[in-house]
Amino acid sequence: MLANTALAAMWVGLTCYALFGGADFGAGLWDLLAGGSERGRPPRRLIEHSIGPVWETNHVWLIFVVVMLWTGFSPVFAAVMSTLYIPLTLTALGIIARGAAFAFRKVSTEVWQQRLFGGFFALSSVVTPYFLGSVAGAVASGRVPPGLAKGNLVTGWLNPTSALGGVLAVLTCAFLAAVYLSGDAARTGEDDLAVYFRHRALVTGVVTGVVALAGIAVLHADAPQLFHGLTHRALPLVVVSAVLGVVSLALLMRARLTSVRVTAATAVAAVLWSWGVAQYPAMLPPSVTVRDSASQSSVLGASLAALAAGALLLVPSLLWLYSLFQRRPAPATGDGERGA
Amino acid sequence: MQPIASGPRALAATVVHQGDLDAARAQMGFSLAWHIVLACLGVGLPLLTLIVEWRGVRTGDPSYRLLARRWARAMGVLFAVGAVSGTILSFEMGLLWPGLMGTYGQVIGLPFAMEGIAFFIEAIFLGIYLYAWDRLSPRTHLLTGVPIVVAGVASAFFVVCANAWMNQPRGFTLRDGKVVHVDPWAAMFNPATPPQTTHMILAALMVAAFLTSSVYAVALLRGRRDRYHRLGFTVPLVLGAIVTPVQLFVGDWAARFIAHYQPVKLAAMEGVYRTGDHVPLTIAGIAGPRGLRYGLRIPDGLSLLVGYSPNTVIKGLEEVPPDQRPPVTGVHLAFDLMVACGLFLLAVSVWLLVLGLLRRRRGGPWLEGESRPLRAFLALGVLTGPAAVVALECGWTVTEEGRQPWIVWGLLRVHDAVNVAPGLMAGLWLVVVVYALMTVATVYVLRRLTRDRPVPLAPQEHDVREYPVV
Predict the structure, then answer these.
(1) Which tens digits make up the pLDDT trace of B60-106?
(2) Where exactly are the structural domains of chain A?
(3) Distance from C-alpha of A281 to C-alpha of A291, rounded to nearest angstrom
(4) Which one of A220, B180, B257, B283 is at 20 to 30 Å from A128 when CA atoms are compared?
(5) Gap from A48 CA to chain B (nearest CA, Å)
């Protein structure tokens, strides 16, 4: 019971990382594709403005997931980290390049510096979710055996299911980001940008749907156990995801930019949860289950209690953070550097 | 003395390439050494920024307000880099040391979970603090900085709790190499926790305070003696001067703790080979086969320091077999260097106190003129920042190197915890290159921040229209 609660808490954290951190990654992709300095200025400015106050908070979800995994399911953490250390090292480097470059670009004034740091930020925003997605694919297709570095270090993450996971991760990030950004642009009255990102959301939405459909064939051939789970136990979630994906496209066509945020986010969350439900109770398919790998109840109980206490502080703070920057600001007080 | 048994081999049964073990240690060592400076700034800089912002709100003094703005900007850059380099460490715990995490991950998970929450709070309020200057009243804005400081100190506490556990493993029973009966609270609050966490938090405040003041000491020496620069030098230096004497006592407490709980580590720190009383204190020196050579010996010094009596018995390295002894020269020199830097910082702090008292008695200008003592004082002020960082790094070397060959004191060897996958050396080089690039970029960006032209780090709403993002 405690183990399942810990797993659920971890999965909620993973969902939040996918929905919030994922959108930040996707914004990096759109930054990459925004074009030359002149043409790309308006979308880049919007991206910078939208993710500036929140990206660090969004990033912490990843730390939360990592810590929950090692606390709640230590042997699984050890097995995944040791077998998949190549994509995970690259993920770590991508995270460092992305965060640092984003902060550096904000304080750069010259074009070449902004280009350089912007390039690092944008490129690492694309490769990092790819590697994370391929790690998910590796676990889901049963390529991580228990023990230390017992799986294949190369084919563990270079295989059809991992490739599918990586591509889907990049696409869903791009889709979410385009949806959020079009809403942000509309809110600040930049209608051209709203249209710009709405078109991109439509295109990535369609492409994501096509890749997900094609992915069914890939999973059938490469990860039959996962395929079976997705077409049986997790089928309702798969259907929900597909339906909400179509609904999101329809809402985007009609420029309903607030409601599409909800449907798009739920569609992506449903993909993640369908993976979890399809695989449950296996942590490392086919053999290691939740029960096999869970920490002792004293540990799980203490960690969950700490989380519950922390949530009392965290939830209102998070709500304040997100709502503060969705409102229009009060008139400037002039306490800035210009006034000083 | 702690029983040092040849512990269970944990999960790692495969033979490890020695080269890869060294690569893993090197990678962990320098990513930690890199991050720890940022982590200290993350604890201390928000406090300094809040102090000057508070003074600015109270007095309306524009110099304080400008300082608050500038430090907040530096804080934003440093926090971003610190956050990502800290994330790398949590990955590396698994990438490099799966043998530790697979067995003991659940034992030390609790403080890390709490650290995660504290870090969350920090990130949330940092986002608010940096970006909402013009959305909140000055007083409310000031208050949003308080959770950053509290959560920063709490993060440091939780993380060091986990490290303290590696020095004093508690809160579980081992049965056939498997961990049973875990008591995560006993693991977290082990005997090493109080001295180690206190020592670290004070060190963090010292590093942030002295590094900040040394930046302004350079400017003062170059003749920029306006109120802005004088305050930028004085405010952090006063904080450092308050903390340093306290640190001296805490450091003594920490050393006394080690003498009692980790005598082999103390023996390596002080270069003591044979158990006995009337043990001299040896300053500097290089480890030879029978003792430290070329060092300065103070008769009975160590016995007096540890037990206030020359008859105090100090255990030597001979208490354990040679393969369980930490490397003496490195640990000993690092310890001496840390103490030397600490004493230097104490001397500067005392000088600051004397200067302050003289000025109060005589009145007169503060940090003005070109007198030789003042220039000497400022020159030493420039050195305080690097000295604090050297002390910090040396302190960590003593803690980590002095625990060798154990990753978990007396239970699990580093050798048995490392990832058995090949190719860690390649990963090391990749990581070295990335960190080198990041170091260059960070220093470059921070230097630019000190330039005069205002650049919004966190563009507020009214900046966005004209703010040039290419």
Answers:
(1) 888 888 888 889 888 888 888 888 888 888 888 888 898 888 889 89
(2) 2-300
(3) 8
(4) A220
(5) 8
Contact B109 A99 (CB under 8 A): no
For residue A294, the chain B residue with the least C-alpha distance is B106
Among residues B21, B65, B20, B13, the alpha carbon closest in space to that of B415 is found at B21
CATH class of B20-275+315-461: mainly alpha
Convert the pLDDT of each residue in A272-299 to its tens digit.
999 999 998 989 988 898 888 888 889 9
B325 φ/ψ sector (left φ>0, alpha ψ -120 to 50, else beta) = beta
Cβ of A71 within 8 Å of Cβ of B125? The answer is: no
Interface probe with A: pick from B120, B129, B159, most Cβ of A within 10 Å? B120
Q: Are strands B281-283 and B296-298 parallel, antiparallel or unpaired?
A: antiparallel
| CATH 1.10.8 is held by the domain A2-300 | no
Interhelix angle A111-140/A160-187, nearest 10 degrees: 130
Question: SS3 for B278?
Answer: coil
Nearest residue in chain B measured CA to CA from A64: B116
d(CA B63, CA B210): 20
Q: What is the pLDDT of residue A248?
A: 94
Structure confidence by residue, pLDDT tens digits, B109-163: 999 999 999 998 998 899 889 888 888 888 888 999 999 999 999 999 999 999 9
- pTM, entire model: 0.86
Number of CB atoms found within 10 A of residue A152's CB? 15
